[in-house]
């Protein structure tokens, strides 16, 4: 029962990493689109692509938090009492990002539009970075089982910084592929080329960081390195294959195939992390069974989670289908 709850938790983590990551990556391209005139077209496409779905993706974050604090309360307490600084900064970034995205559509003064746009774009970069440092701190075993670990070195360390940079890079890559597909769907050759070039550049940069990260993990997070090069290796290779295929097919593949390959590239590497870390919740210690809530709680949580997935997944699928078919008003 505890392992099943952990798997469901990680399904939520993967869904948020992929879907929320695409949203954050779109903000990265909003930030780097250039001045008001030069970046108008790309920002308009980003707004059109995000408007119907950006709020819905945070459902997965809430799902993960509920699963963690209910199913594994000791792990939740350990993480929150150790990594409260990056988690707090990430939460602040989520709030600022949402406010900026919402208000920049209604303010009329140029200076206000620039301020809200900058808030949205900047927080779209810092939020995945800090979430990546949290993942790095957990994966490298820097969160003590009884909590109250070092509030600085738990996330300011080589593995955490690598996780933060990779999170930003992967989000930017997924978003660039998604927006390339979106521009192709809208028959906008100029924007398709703009985002395609950035997807290619981001893939090269993120791949270089990942290769450099091999040495970092070997030196700083030995168990994670062993797991990723052992039983997690097939998933890492699938991730790399999906990423390379999406880049190779950017010029000619159907938009849905490109999006599926980008999702595969991001999702399988997250799953690979979970496989490499199993059976520990905190990277190198605290087994799933040791951190689990009582069986009665897990049974109730499993029923509630199953009901939630049965309701949420079809609803979100319908939302995406309606958006892709152009049935939602995003003006």
Automatic annotation (TrEMBL):
Cellular-component GO terms for this entry: cytochrome complex; plasma membrane
Broad class of the protein's primary localization: membrane
Transmembrane parts of this sequence: 6-29, 75-96, 117-139, 159-181, 201-219, 231-250, 257-276, 296-322
Subcellular location: Cell membrane
Alphabetized UniProt keyword annotations: Cell membrane, Membrane, Transmembrane, Transmembrane helix
A Pfam entry, by short name: Cyt_bd_oxida_II
Bilayer disposition of the protein: Multi-pass membrane protein
Membrane in keyword set: yes
Keyword Heme belongs to the record: no
Single Gene Ontology BP annotation: aerobic electron transport chain
GO MF annotations, alphabetized: electron transfer activity; oxidoreductase activity, acting on diphenols and related substances as donors, oxygen as acceptor
InterPro entries listed in its UniProt record: Cyt-d_oxidase_su2
Similarity comment text for this entry: Belongs to the cytochrome ubiquinol oxidase subunit 2 family.
Protein name: Cytochrome bd-I ubiquinol oxidase subunit 2 apoprotein
């Amino acid at each position: 029962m505890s392992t099943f709850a952990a798997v469901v938790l990680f399904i939520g983590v993967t869904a948020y990493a992929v879907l929320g990551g695409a949203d954050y990556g779109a903000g990265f391209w909003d930030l780097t689109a250039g001045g008001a005139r030069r970046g108008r077209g790309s920002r308009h496409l980003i707004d059109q692509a995000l408007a119907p779905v950006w709020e819905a993706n945070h459902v997965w974050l809430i799902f993960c938090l509920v699963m963690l604090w209910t199913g594994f309360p000791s792990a939740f307490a350990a993480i929150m009492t150790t990594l409260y600084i990056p988690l707090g900064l990430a939460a602040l970034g989520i709030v600022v990002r949402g406010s900026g995205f919402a208000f920049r559509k209604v303010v009329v003064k140029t200076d206000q539009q620039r301020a809200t746009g900058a808030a949205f774009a900047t927080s779209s970069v810092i939020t995945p970075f800090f979430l990546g440092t949290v993942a790095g701190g957990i994966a490298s075993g820097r969160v003590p089982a009884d909590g109250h670990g070092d509030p600085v070195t738990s996330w300011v360390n080589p593995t955490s910084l690598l996780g933060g940079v990779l999170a930003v890079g992967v989000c930017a890559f997924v978003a660039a592929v998604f927006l390339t597909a979106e521009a192709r769907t809208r028959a906008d050759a100029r924007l398709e080329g703009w985002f395609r070039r950035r997807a290619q550049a981001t893939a090269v940069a993120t791949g270089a960081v990942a290769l450099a990260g091999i040495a970092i993990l070997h030196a700083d997070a030995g168990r994670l390195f062993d797991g990723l090069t052992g039983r997690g290796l097939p998933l890492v290779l699938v991730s790399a294959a999906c990423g390379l295929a999406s880049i190779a097919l950017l010029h000619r593949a159907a938009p849905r195939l490109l999006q599926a390959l980008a999702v595969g590239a991001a999702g399988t590497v997250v799953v690979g992390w979970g496989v490499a870390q199993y059976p520990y919740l905190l990277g190198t210690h605290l087994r799933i069974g040791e951190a689990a809530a009582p069986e009665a709680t897990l049974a109730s949580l499993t029923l509630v989670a199953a009901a939630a997935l049965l309701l949420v997944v079809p609803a979100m699928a319908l939302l995406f289908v309606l958006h892709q078919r152009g049935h939602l008003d995003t003006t």
